Amino acid sequence: MENDGSRITIFDTTLRDGEQSPGCSMNVQEKARLARQLDRLGVDVIEAGFPIASDGDFAAVQAVAAAVPRPVIAALARAARHDIERAAQALQSAIRPRIHIVLATSDIHLQHKLRISRQQALEQARDSVRLARTFCNDVEFSPEDATRTDPEFLFQVLEAVIEAGATTLNIPDTVGYTVPAEFGELIRNIRQRVRGVEGVTISAHCHNDLGLAVANSLAAIANGARQVECTINGIGERAGNASLEEIVMALRVRADQYPYTTGIATEHLYPTSQMLEEITKIPVQPNKAIIGRNAFAHEAGIHQDGMLKNRLTYEIMTPQSVGVPGSKLVLGKHSGRHALSLRCDQLGYHFERRELDEIYRKFVVLADQIKQVHDHQLLGLIHETYGEAHRIPPGRVDSDRSVAAAANAEGQGRRLFPAVPAAPASDFSAASLPNTPGSEHLPDQEDYLWGV
Ligand code: KIV
Ligand code: ZN
């Protein structure tokens, strides 16, 4: 694949390594559906399956190749003739096929799993890459458990497979054992020590057993890797693979540290994550970076106050940039008066500060008991305290805050606060938060202390 030096190839293995995580297996139709979404997302390579594993996986590779002509379609094979032939067969209709060969190189795997010598492994690696090249010009080789392999032997194997025609050298941290400085150094040493490496792409494939998969992938990029293998939602064997959305957004948000580009259309990240969750029924952890349901939710009063004044205070990227509809302010015991007042307005009740203080006092007692206060419970509090006395006249539900907010929005004149939903929602959207201070009556510090 063409690479101008700063473009990172995103190799998505959700359909292969991701699928290997318990409970995540997908049928042919599901794989084809997700592949179309991965295409929309803009991944460069889709690893569609392991054709020798089952007839279903063979059919899935064929179906993915037929469904998405743009990306490279990879199929995994062990370093064995039958595996490679089966992969080549499954890829027959792919416009840009890649055979991905894996063979372990660490002594632990050679002695206990494969029961072969280093010399045998080296020959098997070289011969299988040669065979794969008879079917396809794009051949990736992965020395499984590379990070626990004697580096000198690893370099020898890599040189041998380059000579045999490998076009991508993928360096797997199969058991998630390495740490960023060490992995970065390994990639650097491969670039310096392996003959012929300048003509191939170096790739990183990191697992998350120590929670370092993304950090290790970024270290690899910083040291010369130009392909990263990753999965949506970070699914994969055991603790998972490096999460695609985290790598891509780290590169984008911290472009000052990582001056690299990808082909990912980031606004498709959340929809892709949701589709995978729907297909596998494996829920994303709420605090998962980028796409978890709390990734753009704010409960603490101090944070909500900051967000209502300027979202830069507590958000380093916009939710829209990753396809999340909007930020959310959640009403709980940590919430403050600014957010409460906003929600009351959105529900159709307007209070001056002293009146709101009374609602706030009761709200905190309730939130202490039930953790999150939903709209119907807030409406109950309002009703029991003031009845309908503070109802905003029909047709003006949204307008009071809009006027105030518009005044703060440097004359943009747009509707800054979302309308009250027809059915009470549990969280409310702060999708159009003002970017300038919102308080008119009190000095800044006093307003801050009242609001949080
Ligand atoms: O983790 C691993 O070593 C793998 C290889 C097939 C690349 O998934
Ligand atoms: Zn893996």
Tell me about this structure.
The protein has 452 residues and is an alpha/beta fold. It folds into two domains: 9-280, Alpha-Beta Barrel (TIM Barrel), CATH 3.20.20; 297-451, no CATH class. It has helices at 28-41, 55-67, 81-90, 107-114, 118-133, 151-164, 180-193, 213-222, 244-253, 269-280, 301-309, 337-347, 353-370, 375-386, 399-408, 444-451, and strands spanning 9-12, 45-49, 72-78, 97-104, 139-144, 168-173, 201-206, 227-230, 297-298, 328-329, 428-429. Helix 5 runs parallel beside helix 6 and helix 13 crosses helix 14 (375-386). It starts with 8 loop residues before the first strand and ends with a helix. Mean pLDDT is 90; it is low at 399-428 and 430-440. The structure holds 3-methyl-2-oxobutanoic acid and zinc ion. Residues 17, 172, 174, 205, 207, 237 line the site of zinc ion.
Task: Summarize, please.
The protein has 452 residues and is of the alpha/beta class. The protein is 42% helix and 12% strand.
Which secondary-structure class do the elements indicate?
alpha/beta
Small molecules in complex: 3-methyl-2-oxobutanoic acid, zinc ion
CA gyration radius, whole angstroms: 27 Å
How many helical stretches? Answer: 16
Helix and strand run? EHEHEHEHHEHEHEHEHHEHEHHHHEH
Largest sheet: 8 strands, parallel, barrel
Shape: elongated
Any idea what the CATH superfamily of the largest domain is called?
Answer: Aldolase class I
**DSSP E strands, number:** 11
| CATH fold description of the largest domain | TIM Barrel
End-to-end distance, in Å?
Answer: 52 Å
Helix content: 40-55%
CATH 2nd-level architecture of the largest domain: Alpha-Beta Barrel
Task: Tell me what portion of residues adopts beta-strand conformation.
Answer: 5-15%
The pLDDT mean sits at 90
- Contiguous low-pLDDT stretches (5 residues minimum) are 399-428, 430-440
Main sheet: strand order: 1-2-3-4-5-6-7-8
